[in-house]
Amino acid sequence: MKLAHLVVASALAGSLGGCVVRGSAHIVAPEPIAVVEVDEEPPAPRTETVVYTSRPGFTWIEGRWVRAGGRWDWRGGFWERERANMQWEQGRWDRRGNRHVWVEGHWNARGGTEVRDHRSEPAPPPTVRDHRH
Description:
The chain is mostly beta strands. It is 11% helix and 31% strand.
């Protein structure tokens, strides 16, 4: 029985020998995820004393308040190993209406695309080029 499977697999592999598949993809970073939504405003962040002002190869992730069991608990900051060509954006509490939402911190590509809301900016003047030369 195993020999039969080997013969079928060999025949299939041989029939695909001339098949070439090519493709491309564009990866878009997802929006930061809101993981906690509460009615009560979180306490002000605590001041943390960081022993090292810099630690080569690591990034400081700031501490934050977390809601647990109906009360606020402080989760202290920590060092996390850096990621190649990435930069850490700290998490934050956002006010949305009468709710407070925790937006998780995340890694962004260094030198990546800057996202701005252009609705409030005046449109730049058009560039006119004479292509006859």
